[in-house]
Design a protein that fits this description.
The protein is mostly helical. Helices cover 62% and strands 3% of the residues. It has eight helices and two strands. The chain has a two-stranded antiparallel ribbon. α4 packs parallel to α6.
Length: 149
């Protein structure tokens, strides 16, 4: 297993696809008492940041940084939108793994003293933080553990 696959797809803790599987729209949008965000909110935020990095999506970066939209303003209207978000997150994780296969890309300096490898490592930590919150929210709503595929 590559370092990047380990960090973004299935290492250290539950595989990301399993963590995000089997949730209904009601579960994904539930906010347990005291929780500031839902599973959907946490994944939406993580997906926006991941998109900004791995797709080099300036619009996603601007939405989070300049416009201050760290979390969604509304819940998804249907289960298809939830499933599309999960798919986008998992596709972005695979793109991060793909970037990790290019030593040239990893070595590129994106700002003084900061390489793209540094940025990917930071993204992996960011994802782990928010996915840990997803796991805790799943536990709080009684949707733990995710089913084994």
């Amino acid at each position: 297993m590559s370092k990047w696959r380990h960090l973004f797809v299935d290492g250290e803790f539950i595989a990301r696809s399993r963590l995000l599987s089997g949730l209904t729209l009601a579960q994904a949008t539930a906010r347990p008492p005291g929780a500031p965000h839902s599973i959907y909110d946490e994944l939406w935020h993580a997906t926006q940041w991941q998109s900004a990095v791995v797709r080099r999506d300036a619009a996603a970066a601007a939405m989070c940084e300049t416009e201050g939209q760290q979390f969604p303003s509304a819940a998804p209207e249907n289960e298809n939108l939830w499933n599309e978000l999960v798919a986008a997150f998992l596709e972005g994780a695979e793109q991060a793994v793909a970037w990790g296969r290019s030593p040239e890309e990893l070595a590129k300096e994106v700002s003084p003293g900061l390489t793209f490898a540094d940025v990917l490592e930071s993204l992996a930590v960011h994802n782990a933080y928010h996915l840990g919150k997803v796991a805790a929210l799943r536990q709080a709503i009684g949707a733990w553990p995710p089913e084994t595929k």
